[in-house]
Write a structure and sequence with these properties.
Layout: E1 4-9, E2 12-17, H1 28-43, E3 49-54, H2 65-68, H3 80-86, H4 90-94, E4 105-109, E5 112-114, H5 116-121, E6 126-130, E7 134-136, H6 150-157, H7 160-169, E8 172-174, H8 175-181, E9 186-188, H9 193-206, H10 209-221, H11 227-242, H12 246-255
Parallel strand pairs: 2-3, 3-4, 4-6, 5-7, 6-9
Antiparallel strand pairs: 1-2, 7-8
Helix pairs in contact: 6-7, 10-11
């Protein structure tokens, strides 16, 4: 059984963390396979966005602490040491810490999204949660450091005092709280997060891909720029999109009352 399953559904890639016996706890194998998937998402022009989810009603319980304590489950593992030797940076790329695809990633969360589960969540762009989902970065409880980026990222995505409370106490929060603080985008009935994520992904994938990728680039790059700096940054990016053939196809399709046929040109 593969620890990461990758499905391609039209223009959408679905990446599923697949270790349900351990609530999809993360391994080096999973990081390697996710790093490969994110690279493919960026490089494959036929793909327009991705969904990240977990198998069997859980997102991920974080790093496999049982394995760290010696209780290893090697089912589906690749040669992790060989991959570390040839490509030591794959762990943080897989976690969406040091690499983020050029196309949107939508999270579909059911059950637990704890520790590394919440850490990788912060590298996604749109997030859907089932009503019973739980979130938290609990590394401090076990005298571990959240190396997936939460000590930096979480306070940039939700209020500082809330982030500090989560990080320093190791507390878990509900899906309703996550929605309230802006950590997730949608709250849906349990068991329907993936369905909603597919709906959102279909909408994103139906939009102009050049525009989507340019907007995403601007969102990420300008977060901490002044407004004037950000406007200067976005100008050539926006003009490149507006000079494309797709930018002519969109209004033409609108006037002709038909679905646009975008060509990434």
């Amino acid at each position: 059984m593969a620890q990461i399953e990758v499905e391609r559904d039209g223009h959408v890639m679905v990446v599923t963390m697949n270790r349900p016996k351990r609530k999809n706890a993360m391994t080096l194998t999973m990081f390697a396979l996710m790093a490969d998937a994110w690279q493919e998402l960026s490089e494959n022009d036929d793909l327009r966005c991705a969904i990240l989810t977990g198998a069997e009603s859980n997102f991920s319980s974080g790093m496999d602490l049982r394995a760290m304590a010696g209780d290893v489950d090697p089912d589906g593992a690749i040669d992790e040491q060989a991959r570390l030797k040839s490509d030591p940076g794959f762990v943080y790329r897989g976690l969406l810490k040091t690499y983020r695809p050029t196309k949107p990633v939508i999270a579909a969360v059911e059950g637990v999204a704890i520790a590394g589960g919440t850490e990788i969540l912060q590298g996604t762009d749109i997030r859907v949660a089932g009503e019973s989902a739980r979130f938290g970065v609990s590394e401090a409880r076990w005298s571990l450091y959240p190396m997936g980026g939460s000590a930096v990222r979480l306070q940039r995505q939700i209020p500082y005092t809330v982030a500090a409370d989560i990080l320093l106490t190791g507390k878990h929060i509900s899906a309703a709280e996550a929605l309230h603080y802006g950590l997730v985008s949608y709250l849906v009935p349990d068991g329907t997060a993936l369905d909603k994520a597919r709906e959102v992904a279909g909408t994103v994938a139906g939009n102009g891909p050049l525009a989507v990728e340019a907007i995403l680039e601007t969102l990420r790059a300008t977060e901490h720029m002044s407004e004037d700096e950000a406007f200067a940054f976005e100008q050539p990016i926006g003009m490149r999109v507006m000079a494309s053939q797709d930018s002519k196809e969109g209004p033409k399709a609108f006037s002709e009352k038909r679905t646009p046929n975008f060509q990434r040109k």
